[in-house]
Fold these 3 entries.
Entry 1:
Amino acid sequence: MDKFSYMGNIDIAVIDQMYRQYKNDPDSVESTWQRFFEGFEFARTQFNGEFSDAFDKEFKVINLINGYRKRGHLFTNTNPVRTRRKYFPTLDLENYDLSEKDIDTEFHAGKEIGIGKTKLSTIVEYLEKTYCTEIGSEFMFIRKPDKINWLQHRIESTQNSTKFSREEKLDIYHHLKNAVGFEKFIHKKFVGQKRFSIEGAEILIPALNKLIERGAEKGVKEYTIAMAHRGRLNVLANVLQKPASNIFKEFEGEEYEESIALGDVKYHLGYGNTIKIPDGKEVTLNLTPNPSHLESSTPVIQGIARAMIEQQHDWDNNRLIPIVIHGDAAIAGQGVVYEVIQMSELNGYKTGGTIHIVINNQVGFTTSYLDARSSTYCTDVGKVTKSPIFHVNGDDAEALVHVVRMAVDYRQTFHTDVFIDILAYRKYGHNEGDEPRFTQPLLYKAIANHPNPRDIYKKQLAEEGVLSPDEAKNAEDALDEELEKCLEKAREMKKVVIPQFLKEEWAGFKYAHEVDFTSTIETGVDGELLTMVANQVNTLPDEYTFISKTKKLFNERRKMIREDRLDWALGEQLAYATLLLDGHPVRISGQDSMRGTFSHRHAGLVIEDSDENYIPLHHLSDKQAKFNIYNSPLNEYGVLGFEYGYAMVTPNTLTIWEAQFGDFFNVAQVIVDQYISSAEEKWGVMNGLVLYLPHGFEGQGPEHSSARIERFLNMAANNNMHLANVTTPANLFHLLRRHMKKPSRVPLVIFTPKSLLRHPKCVSKMEDFQKGGFLPLIDDADTERKEVRRVVFCSGKIYYDLLKRKEELGVKDIALIRLEQLHPFPAEEVKKIIRKYSNNMLTLWVQEEPENMGPWYYIQNKMKEYDVVPVTRLASGSPATGLFKIHEIGQDELIEKVFRECTCELQNVYCGLQCVIGGSRKEILKQHYYFDEKGKS
């Protein structure tokens, strides 16, 4: 391939220097410049006194050529139903200091576009056809010459078009016929039902099919696809080949098959299939489920793609291409798109390039594109990563097929994103029952009289003698008959069938039931192995030099191992190490996760005087599974969505997303609401993602205290999530190992500690890791059953505050009970505790959070039979105070309430109640029994 320079971008002084270099040694400059200087030398001998003017005009023509390359996209015929906005300056000759007088002059600058020395009129005509017809090309902002050269050559050598064969044209028509016919059939048979049709942009269907075929030619075996509701049913039927009968049943069905609890609307459902393309190759397609949050599946599909590339395609990203289909309003308006694009070339998240296709309806629900963005194009976000962008007229099927083929070739060559903007329209309103003329009367007047892409192409093929009107009518009638048969089959089906998404990946796993959380699973590990691994991963290799603080840290860890007091970091480390040795890969991702926000993990150690990391967990055994940990970019929505997608494919991998502080997950609330908590009930999707959310009230203010436990508990039902707030390193160890050893997977949310990372009492002995399993509830080991008059339930870090005060006071009649598992609620374990302490007079729930936050309302519901009294902060709209002193006062008040002695009028009597936290004597007498000191009523 010839290389093309960009002369119009280079300073004259640079050209002069290169010319001098050429004079000394012609081979010292690239071939393009050699040819240019040859022409220059020739011109000197021909023009004599006119040379200076001719040379000057050559550069003016080069500037004109580069003007078309840079700005030709602004003057295209890419809008099928609107007149394009006017942009200035135009590409008129006068704006490049040329005129009509130059039109018949021949210029060597024609070599720049591969047509040799020729007339200016020919150059302009060539440029108009190449850059200003039904395709607009944006790529001159790219900074790498090899990419620029590739695109220029591909675009200019073909005049940005493909000469399709008769068979190719008929195949394009076949896909258009299917796309248009499918929508018309549904519109006729299911009157008034929402389907979010693709009408107006039906050329998406041939484009996707041709994209898939082109990729298969280039070695692609699999495509992962994300898209919102617009056109989804058509893509399912005519690209993924989902049976039309199944889709029709979703319009009329009354009951789901047993595997789906609640289900979802038909245009949100996912689907996977392995299809056979015309050349006989088999290609796997997976369209991920998507809620009404339009771009939420954009990060999810990237995670799915990354997992498949790693684990199914041996890290070869040539074998899988992610495709994301956007709406114009969504790609411009949804911030998660920007997040994902910024992630696209990072080591922890790259997938080798995504092909982004925009169904540009030129309207968002009712909002005009002029009110939907500040940028010129909805795809301008693609310029962040210097990705090529193509704008295509939605009426020109051949132009779009040409562009998608080029996009695949570019992606497979350079492994970066490509953006394709299909300028089309939406035939109806936001849905088929919506009236668009309320807000867009002029646009919809034009749309009403506009033929669909099938009919436009059919007319073109008739004029070319490729397809007669009768042949087209017969093909369309045959499609109608086929769809009628599918409808009849649908009406014979008893239930709506929703195949499990990624079923092969989840073979051997079952949906979670209560027994998965109550049955005993031994997760202990042999003591010798634990000791060996603990010392191995905490011994620094001699061949590397580390900073003194790293050496000190690892010396302290080995000392803790010798003294048999393993802290949180060691417990976590041992969980990962033993799972890796068991064959379970581990992936951790989050802001500052490698070191840990609170400097406790140190999973990657920077070698002194270098940027290299030494990762101890890479060096356990030749047979260990892979351990990967990544510091994520500073976003939550994109990264959490990515990790959720990764975990959708990898049930045998411990996949963890860690928030910098617990409440930072609220930036990714969409992923929690629409995927983590509800995907199984909606779509039958299983997922074992683990969330680490640092939680604890320690005076750090409203944004660094609460992981919003109440939000998760509010969404917890039907074993949909596993929520835990563990308080010992050993219990964390067993929890993580249990998560990977049980036969089902649900998202596991762990409210992780901050101050407990270094708390002297938050340690475990090695024997605690060797036996038993995860404890959903931990009893008070330091109290005699018969002495206890007050049972205090709590969860998380406040236990250690209560324990400290209990030891200071020497209290023996109060039992501190830790709820390590919040959901599913350990009802049987709680019942055993209540029965055990039969002399109990008062049951408290203690939490650091305000009354309207934290677990209290959930606990109140789950323990209503036990007359539990809450000890909390006052209800508040904000989780915590910003002043440390006020925090300390509030924390002390909470603790003191728990240990306050009886203050009612009945001296030396246990009132069993609210006098310790407030309440009148009248209420006490009315509602509670009283006991003397001996426990007799």
Entry 2:
Amino acid sequence: MLTITVHPHDERLWLGEHPLAHTSVARPEQGAGDIEGAQAQQRESRLLYHQWRMYQATAPLVINTHATGTGKTLGALLRLLARVRQIGPDQLTPRQGDTLFIAPTNELIEQHVRTASEFCQRYGLPYRVVPVTRAHLQRRWQELAPEERTRRGRFLRQLLSDPATALQETVSTAQATIFVTNPDIFYYILTACYNRFDRGPLLVEVLRDFSLVIIDEVHYYSPRQLAAFLFFLKLSAAWGYLSGPDSPRQICLLTATPSLPMRRYLERLGIETEWIEPQDPVPEVWADKVKSVRALTPVELEIYSTEELTKDLHGQRQSGDALLCLVQRLWPTLRQLLESQPADGFPVEGAILSNSLRTINLIYGELRARWPAASERVGRITGPQRSQAREQARERQLILATPTVDIGYNFERTRPGQGQPGQDLPTSAVRKPRPSLDFLLFDARSGDELLQRLGRVGRVLALAAGEHCGPCRAWVVVDQESYRWFESYHGTTIDRGALAKLAARMPARQDLTAYVRSGVIGEFFRSIGLIGQGMADEELPLLDSFLQDLQQLFAGEQEQHQRPWSYRRIREVLRRYEERARSYGGFSHIPAIAFERFAALLDGQQPDPHDPAISYLKAFEERLLSIMQHRYERPRSSQEAVLWLKQDLSQYYTERSRWNFREGFETPQVQVFDPQHLLADEDVTHYDLFHILRSYEATFFPTEEEWRRACFPEGSRQHTNLLGNQQEEQVPARDEEVILFCRLQALRKQPGQVGLRLDVPEQSRAEWEEQWAYRVTALWGLRPQLINDDTGLPACVGSCFQERFVPVFVAAEESSTAAWLLSLRQKARFFPVALHISFADRTARYRAVLGPLAWQLAAEIPRWVFERDRRQGQQGESEPFFF
């Protein structure tokens, strides 16, 4: 264990003209629900220098890189205020004022909606604030009368273009709208992923109608995800929306830990940019208008390695969870902190943050077993929790959370009626005179995670006497290699700049840039195709010029080695994809019976007109004619025709997998009955299959009806809510993505290993590898299995995505490519899945990467490694390549 004291961090307070002075609008007397607003108003009364700079910034692109917890969000809202004042509140129109605010997590979206609503109300800005997430869109859509429910994409179009009508507002004073959304929806609009009727109008809405775009926590995204924002910036500039100080659009990027590759991409954009950074000197003319103010208290930091925490008394490595081991080791200290009674009358409050949902739930179970008060004082903020449970959890003394609170989340609790004994303070004035978090435990796999999470503790910027607050405490778990970087600083005191340099030596959160240089441009082909369709022929050279600039932005120095893209070439790629989409686009899965019936049809057996597989047969017949024309030959048998068809389907689903904002494979969703609250605080929730298989002993049911009969024999049940009251609870309706049902029995003591199995009786290993291995493809027939578990999986689980084409990159376990994959694990933070394949001639083991991440990892591995393994596969031999 290492101990390091981290210096406090000061910001620069602005003493000059205050843009918020005397602009607050009179409001009714505040109640308990307005505590956050009162606290926000107190924070806003102390304006920081970087926030003042945001208010004054006129460049088309503004990038604020100040530290976590120093008010970058308020700075962005001040930029909004400045634009409104420049136009005039009475002259504001949707085209001039509509704002898009993008935040990476739904928890942060809810926080930004509250903050922006309160800000606009307090300062008289004529805005409505609308959250735009999948859950909100679904709820709004369901509130419509049945005859008014059309396509969801059409409803989103109406919401963006005419929110008053979409939200059924009868009376509204709003003249413009702040739409707060997640990057997924933005990405799917920008890459034209909605249906053919809505994708064009939605793309136009995003490209034309937002005068201010705020992208929060930009560092959180992978290079591939960042590319979508770069495309939007480049397109906005090319179409004249970012033309200078008077440009119709301004874009604000907020990030505390910008990576070096991100900086390089942004600098290559060629857009006038104002960087607002902590190290920027104050101009001499403003020197007397700035003074230091405490932002973060000192932190007494203890650093542990995973190796030391998971060794037993004899020094043997145990397969335990490191952060759980740390909680167990520190529990006497933590309990003493939690049960202490400070003189100011406010409790000691803390949080435990982890990348792993399993770890958080293990710790939650450990605390409930050790501490009788845990049920009332400990709360979870995790993905499976519903919004009401999250709201209740954020008020608990000790919060356990996954990365949903990693970025920008405010841990401030409301405190109605609380304060010093004998004081009679109004609810709105009650505020803890110490940081909202007094202590923090967390794990960190990358340098930006360490800095971001450490920045959650010791925040005192909003406190008038923040410089008098004592040090907070933090404990962090890092890997052994990262631990060594800190060893020479044991027992010392360092400033946060030195800590940031040490953290920069840790692995990056995700640093896969090869795909951005070589292939990410393909994700924007559909958008480019739509833009080209709306241009006259004589304007198309402008589009080709834009494509060359875009390719140079992504590829950098490697651009000269790549064949340039043109609109004509992109249209040909899209034409081939759209041909397949017309045949296959309506199928989410392909049942085995469809291939069997098609082979029978080719052998002369006519299908029954009422056969459920008839739609597949029509699509297959149409595509086979196209395949034959492309191949200039006919299949020698029905089985060969089916193989051709599977290859064509695989190519379609492989290309389609590019258009998915999330990196990983989206496993089937399971509706979970959880009366012990092992996963979440509700009795019924839903979550992904692989997590359930790895983390829980569970009973699965083949149908929803059997699940309901077994878990809810009376149709409803008595439920003890979080306040300890009995209430009747109806069984929640099934989520539309759910395809499996289970009841959780217990948390596994050791995580299960989930693998995959594939049967290929019609091909030898060499034949199969020639067609499917060492490239990004999509495989049909995959079945999940638990490795080293003799009990096996129920049939309903084993076949749950057997009929889907799953995007995948596969390499033989003993190959050089697999060795490269293993070397990339820490860099990309992924775990290749074990794949066992039975061929006609033998069985073999492989490593597989599922989902869109397959594209990125394949781009990182040199081509010569693939070719070497392919050649050796044909020879039936392979030598591992060691690192």
Entry 3:
Amino acid sequence: MAATSRTWTGLDWPVIQERLAQRTQTEGGRERALSLFPQGSLLWVERELSRTEEAAALLRERVRLPWSRVHPIGPFLERARRGGILEGQALYQIAQTSQAAREIRGLLLASGGPELKDLAEALPHMEEGERAIFRAISPEGEILDEASPLLAELRREERQEEERLRRFLDRLIRSPEMQPFLQEAVITQRQRRFVVPVRASYRHQVPGILRDVSASGQTAFVEPQGAVEIQERLLLLARKREAEEKRILRELSHLVAKEADLMALAEDLLYQLDLIFARAEMSLEWEGRRPGGLRGEAFRLCQARHPLLEGEVVPLDLELPGPGHGLLITGPNTGGKTVALKTAGLMVLLHQAGFLPPVGEGTVIPFFQAVFCDVGDEQDVQQNLSTFSAHLLHIKEMLPEAGRKSLVLLDEVGSGTDPEEGAALAMALLEHFLERGAYLLATTHYGPLKAFAERHPRLKNAAVEFDVATLAPTYRLILGQPGRSYALEIARRLGLPEAILERAQAYRDPAERRADVLLTRLETMRAEAEEALLRAREEEEAARAVRRALEEERERLEEERARLYREAAEEVRGWQEKVKAELLELEKKGRLLLESLRKGEGEETFRQDIRKLRKEAGREVLPQPAYVKPEKRAVFEVGQGVYVQSLRAAGEVAGPPGSDGKVPVQIGALRVWVDAEDLLVQEGSKRAPAVGRREVDYRSRAGVGPQLDLHGLTVDEALLRLEKYVDDAYLAGYEEVKILHGKGTGVLRQEVRRWAQGHPLVESFRPGNPREGGDGVTILRLKG
């Protein structure tokens, strides 16, 4: 991306680079962060934005990469290429980097997005070299005994000889015969040989080689004769061991040299990934998002926040419909005009450097080839340049370069000279940039420029908001209207004498005073309108909250109702299963009686068994305590025990009868409304005295027809009714029944047949034939 040096400093890009570098995990990643600049390649920007977006998704999922094992291995690789022998620590760092590359590759291939997977596919690692190094080198860079059988044997022999030497010398210095000759009973080293300190006067009493004499001449350091042979053996073993260690390091270095190019590529890609994840981490910290419109022309910022500002940051909203359009921002000093310029420019730089900028939903940022920024005071005493001259020289650099893919940011354009001439020059500059098709953002205090913007078809006014009541800026950008400088109001707040302020007001042009009055009134009306809109939105949100609460309560009640229906159905089903089992048992006993009768057993015995069965049937079938038919026009009391004949279930009256004469009855968790004629009342009731017990005929078909119509019911309601109907039809003795569910979407038909497939009373089922209703009905064949 083209830009002047002042653009980078004016938009705080070096600060972004340094903060990015602080989040990298490797030296190479840090170097890349400090050299990162926005790019002028559309494909590069699209790719890097995708990589950052994918890395941010992994960071949200707490995926962490093993950066601690990535080392700067470039110098080691270069030395290996030249045939050099690497130290153990260098080899271990190369193997660790290879291991990290292998693990990162696996993580990204398993969890990364398309762009990161492409990077992972290209990420190599050493195959043979990594395994060989970890087998031979310790984390501290030492060569392990396992590196070769010969090395292990040599080191074992060295340890044995050292132990032998230690024992010999220890016996020597502890020997009573040697004690008088020794200066002290210790073992020390001279010329890398183990010696004992002997009194100089007894030097010839201790056979051995003189290795050194103390500075005072009182002590001779003698290598005892018996130790010479052992130490010669140790020196020989050490030379062999060192030669073997060097051979191992040479072989491992050769393996690294063979794969040096691959590892150099791996190091480069790892540094790229480090930069990508650091960029993603920064993007997450400021809650960035990927803007749209990269290939479009509109430039719109929604809720953009400058990431380097501390404290509560007022977000920025602005829009330029396309190339050759501009925005002129006016308002008081310290009101946020320059911050608005720098925020807009920095959002573009971050976007084209692959960051997810801190913007809100709806933001669109097109692709720019250049960003030109003239912000701040550029007075240069050494070059004898005034602020005005420095600004002009910088703007001069932009004039031939700015075009349709350029963003131009001008702070206090035309300032630093005569206001009339400065305003005229500013108009000419603004018009030049707009004619060249640049996107333009500029700030000013000049009144003529505000009027110029009102007249120009592609230049709009905007104002930084100022609270008239508190005489303090709010830092909000208001599009579509010019702003006031509020110089006299600010001077009054700072305590200037009122007489001076009144005199200054009198010197002002009457037309400008009237314009300020109109602008103030306009700002007041806008603030009142915004306040009214805010109240309306708050009331609307409160209404939405109430509606949501009511909807949640309705859903809760629906769930509770469904739960109660399910519990009641389970309770009734359990009772019905018990009755079915008892019926089957009675039927079994009846068959046994008939069999005994056929075998000629006594008729009296048969009659006794029949009476016994009837007694058992009555005791089992009739509810306890006894229920009787109520008197005509009986008044049912709440809590009165009743028996619902059609349901064959006991319950209690739950309330007064309804307008249709139906009585509410609570049966376990289920409440039903039934006809009064369908009820038996508990014997002994004041309102309905018992008239005696009666037998219930399970095989009666009263009230149970050969078909059931489920049209208009939900699936849950239909299955509940179907369950009861099949139980009643079975008890009524039907062999086959018809279930009318209609065709419709087919959901109810599928649920009915799924239910029938696993029901213990249904032997089989089939769709109806054309005369029976086709696929709109299901015929159930009940078990015999």
